[in-house]
Amino acid sequence: MPRSVYRTCHLCEACCGLEFHVEEDKILSVRPDAEDPRSQGYACPKGIAIAHVHDDPDRLRRPMRRTPAGDFEPISWEEALSEACTRLAEIRDRHGRDAVALYVGNPVVHDHGAALVRQGLIKALGTRNCFSAGSQDTSPRFATSWHLYGSSFVLPIPDLERTDYLLCIGANPLVSNGSVLTAPDMRRRLRALRSRGGRLVVVDPRRTETAREADEHVAILPGGDAALLLGMLRVLLDEGRVDREAVARLARGFDGIERRVRALEAAALAAACGIPFDTIARLAREFADARTGSAYSRIGVCNSRYGSLGTWATDLLNLAAGRLGEPGGAMFTTPAVDLSRLSSVPGMDGHGRFRSRVRGLPETLGDLPAACLAEEIETPGPGQVRGLLTYAGNPVLSVPNGQRLDRAFSSLDFMVSVDIYLNETTRHADLVLPPAWALRERHYELIFTQVAARNFARWSPPVVEPEPGERADWEILVALSEGLGGGMTGTGPLDRLLRAARQRGWSATPDHMLDLLLRTGAHGDGLLPKPLRFGRFRDGLSLKRLSKMPRGADLGPLEPGVTRRILHRDRRVHVDAEPFLAALDAWASDPTLGAAQPGELLLIGRREVRTCNSWMHNVPALVSGRERCVLLVHPDDAAAAGVADGDTAILESRIHTGEVPINLSDEMRPGVVSLPHGWGHARAAATLRTAGSHPGVSFNDWSDDAETEAVVGQSILNGVRVRLRAAAQAEAS
């Protein structure tokens, strides 16, 4: 008998509601849930195609082991887990704990079970060589929050429901569906902002899909975001538009910032961002004069040469204009499970507590920059990486200088991957351990409720039940942790208690951890006597109560206030954190560092609504139609390079020269070209048949692992210096 299952889509940050029609183990159809209170019948093409991954014949169903001939054979779970733990432990025992590295891809943020047991796996490995997709695109945001507010998980977001002025910098929410901003159907929300008389200004080197919806598009130079934001702050200071009461009440160290910003020259600021200072000043006045307003910056800022400085300057501008924590401004969520409460757990949160062995790059939130992974494998000596565990990641395509990393993986003594595909990275593994596809698992949005435009909590049941022998992501990770001598949580007494519970036949899963976090959270029943409960509901939230609410719980709009979300002991925003003062001073001494030289262009990335990095390119419905992996070039730059629309041209950076298909586009700022991330599937064409028939080229073959951002050491993926020339010119030379 067909039935309907309602579930949150887990493919991106929007968390749209989906309705699945299911009969036994077969998904008959997927459609947007018209009654979902947040997405209101909206879902992007990825969500509609989600069942195609479930049914993909290329998706792995059983553990696979590399044979001496180099192909793969299926083996049992018992064999696979035993061999994985034995080999990793041998490397660790022989060469030291840092000889085993861990790389975690972005699907972990959509899986509450895996996210909750990740720290247990890190503790069991005992290594400092942890890397993640977040170290490629979010470390500046995490480090900024750590230093300003005392936790990487305290993240200001624009109050979209009430703002009158949204300054959107380096973000394309119509395509990303929001980034560090959970808000389904961004087109509807942004049009609502404008229809109530608000103003949307988009700052981006490309006239993006969001910019086309805006009142104004400002074409900035890649990497110039910090200059724009600091220039706007200087105007507010010079013209007496700073909200001194808010700054005095909320912040520490603003006087030192003010002296530095006032010393910045208008001409240098304008040159660094490629925007006339008159425009910078006008934007500052508009922002300050609006009834409510919020500056919002994201991946285009984070991935630039001054990603941390630009992110810090975004929060500084919101603070100075009196927008931080105010309705319609940059506000903080009150999530049902507040991850900032875990900041005190050892190893969970921080920045700069240790550095990489070879180059001395700093950790952020426990992860080293992925840009240094290849050198940690290649460079001999104590701590050299000899074994690698990857979980749901494809660093060969997502980390700079991917060809170097591809070669480095081939030199490892042992590699194990937890993944549903044999892709460009996992093809190097000795063992591949495939988890059950996510639609067979229960789901709670743990991460993105921290950045939701409206507070909510939702528990989703499995769409189809797990088959015998399938293992959830968290079950695989816990089995690895325990096989390496650790446990589920990484906390010795609690792990021993959980093991004892299982030995008695009791259930011990991440769901129990989640229930505890829900019940002791701001909206929970508190596990306390009634007079002391925090709960907003009559009985408060628990996992049992939430599971009876098929479309989740609406927990209300964002709440005013800042100090309630600050974890520093003095409850003040530490705007004068030393890493940012040093970065500001270094930037002021050479604000045009990294600028294109004569004959060069600056390469930036882009994303499309039908793709989710690399891993959904094996879905036919999401790669059909026109070719999407093309280099967007302004007609003037194309003419200078002697290339035409539809040509295949030569793109060259310091580390790579390769062919790219050309698409002329006047949406590009002259001097800037754009190539999407996540392509380059020729290497895995035999095991990813659909992706292999639409291979494209990998952006990260051109991005340079030697070029890193100053504060967090993150890769510079926006503003890569390149040269473009016609293929005929290359042949002649």
Could you characterize what this model shows?
This protein is α/β, with parallel strands linked by helices and 733 residues long. It has three domains: 59-131 and 339-445 and 459-502, Rossmann fold; 159-324 and 562-589, Dimethylsulfoxide Reductase, domain 2 (3-Layer(aba) Sandwich); 601-732, Barwin-like endoglucanases (Beta Barrel). Helix content is 32%, strand content 17%. The chain has 28 helices and 30 strands. The strands form nine sheets. Strands 5-4-19-18-17-6-7 form a seven-stranded mixed beta sheet. A six-stranded mixed beta sheet has the order 26-28-27-30-25-29. Helix 4 (112-125) crosses helix 22 (510-519), helix 10 (225-238) packs antiparallel against helix 13 (266-273) and helix 10 packs parallel to helix 16 (307-320). The model is unreliable at 531-537 (pLDDT under 50).
